[in-house]
Amino acid sequence: MNLIENSVLYDLINQPQKISSLKFDVISNILKTVKNILEQENLLLEFSFKEINEEVYVIGDIHGNLATLKRIIEIINHNNPKIVIFLGDIVDRGPKQFECLLIVLALKILYPLKYYLLRGNHETLEINKYYGFFQDFISRFDDHSKFSEILSIYNVLPICALINREVLCLHGGIPEDNDILKKLQGQKCKNFREIYNSNEQGIYQIMWNDPKSGLEGFSDNFRGPGIKFFGDDVFENFMRYNNLKYLIRAHECFPEGYRWFFNNRLLSIFSSANYLGSYTPNSASYAIIRNKEVVPKLLRL
Ligand SMILES: [Mn+2]
Hints:
- Helices cover 36% and strands 19% of the residues.
- The mean pLDDT is 95.
- Helix 2 (24-39) packs across helix 4 and helix 2 packs parallel to helix 7.
- The protein is built from eleven helices and 14 strands.
- The protein has one domain: 4-Layer Sandwich (Purple Acid Phosphatase, chain A, domain 2).
- Bound molecules: manganese (II) ion.
- Manganese (II) ion binds next to loops.
């Protein structure tokens, strides 16, 4: 279904300043086109690579930081990885949330088998109302009902991605349910609502949980009810149970840009430099999966 010219999409990627003058019907066509692509994807994306030098780039939270996103796209265009996975949280907090979301969606339409977007905890109405994206959207289009088209994208986003059956990528962390991957496997994104209804806690915790060094088991997380910190033992248990080697997640901002946890088996990245949700300046990072290894990279702006 071709509701939008490729030239319009290239244009908005290369000249994001044009995004604020786009009419809603153009945006609506972009959203409908993306929705059609996403509906056919699986809630657990699975990729296998035969070529040893094929790379996957994994990108963390963007949060409306257009400068960082543009730098990431430059690096991607230069190095040409096979696949790029955004771990969610494209909007909220930063000054150019709408631009960042439209750029990521344009990349998805232009290169649907190269760019993938997972759902973060900010890809929901409640959080967008609290952290700014809903207000940003309403101030542009002056119509609450139009936001339902944004929500219809959120509700068909994949939840996690598995590379070569051993590197798991997701937004927040492991849930208490060790069987969650089996429950998501083979399920289409268009059936999200039905799958969510029977696996609400597991999917919610994938988007919200945080690792904590020195902790045993799960403990309550200050982020909110039902959200957990997970320790070394339950992490190892989940990884062994699912035959996984590495976990790459985002969701937390560290001044140094990225952080390894749990004997270098969990890599936490964050791709918005000097993030507005943090009181101290922070570097941005991304990750490369290459030759079955995970390599963190600092983003030099
Ligand atoms: Mn997050």
